Amino acid sequence: MFRNLPQVTKNLLIINLIFFLAKYAFLRYDIDLTNLLGLHYFAAADFFPWQPLTYMFMHADFGHLFFNMFAVLMFGPALEEQWGARRFLIYYLLTGLGAAIVQEATWALAIHNIGQVSAAHAMYYANQVVTIGASGAVFGILLAFAWFFPEVRMFILFIPIPIRARTLVIIYALIELFSGVAPIPGDKVAHFAHLGGMLFGWIIILLWRRLNVPGFDAPSWGLGQWIKQKWEAVFGKRHPRIKRDDDSKDYSDYHYHGSI
To answer: Mean pLDDT for the chain?
Structure first.
């Protein structure tokens, strides 16, 4: 199975594993790769220009690595085969960079709010925060898979009900948005970085579709039409409005359009 994987998907799995092993190997020499390659706040002392790229190849523990790479393994090959290796790699990296940009903006807002209370606490926070992981790019992949394969049914772990890819991604996005706005105490997940990967993925797909890039001309998931269908299923169809010909006429004088 591993030998038959597309080139970029296979190499992403290998590179992420190498970075994970290197993190522990370098600790023997007192070199903290998480601090060196992880994403820091852009005004922090430990920030370096390469971090918005390298952070997405670092992971906190094996579980973090496993679930991110499992998503790449499951959804990456279909996209790589449709788009081609080079374009899939560009998309992966750009969504990861987009997630980093959104995370930096989230930190900037948090630091600004903390600074209103205490400048010292804001400075301390700015120098302590760090983000690692491929989740931003993974969420970009999830969005793209749902966009081009919206009717594919998938199972969520421990939930034995098949869910369409489009529905699953919308649920994921809503959960991430809620978790980011109202975080649980002690939650260290960068929820807005995940949403940033989705946002930049959406922008890239729309841009490449407009530019008629090969592989992006497939029918999209029709989000607007899907929302309309769900709205009508819950609230019913909207009836045509009744309009009066002239405000000077009596209210009983109506002009009808369509059927009621």
So the answer is: 83
Whether the CB-CB separation of 39 and 55 falls below 8 Å is answered with: yes
CA distance 128 to 106: 14
CATH 1.20.1540.10, applies to 7-235: yes
Query: What Cα–Cα distance (Å) separates residue 65 from each residue in 62, 100, 105, 121?
Result: 5, 18, 25, 32
CB 97 within 8 A of CB 53: yes
- Residue 176 is predicted with a pLDDT of 78
- Euclidean distance between CA atoms 63 and 95, whole angstroms: 22
Close Cβ partners of 54 (under 8 Å, ≥ 6 residues apart): 37, 38
**C-alpha closest to that of 39 among 95, 121, 119, 103:** 103
Say if residues 80 and 145 touch (Cβ distance below 8 Å): no
Does the structure show a pLDDT above 80 at 65?
yes
At 260 the pLDDT is: 40
Beta strands in 105-253, from DSSP E residues, in sequence order: 130-131, 153-156, 159-164
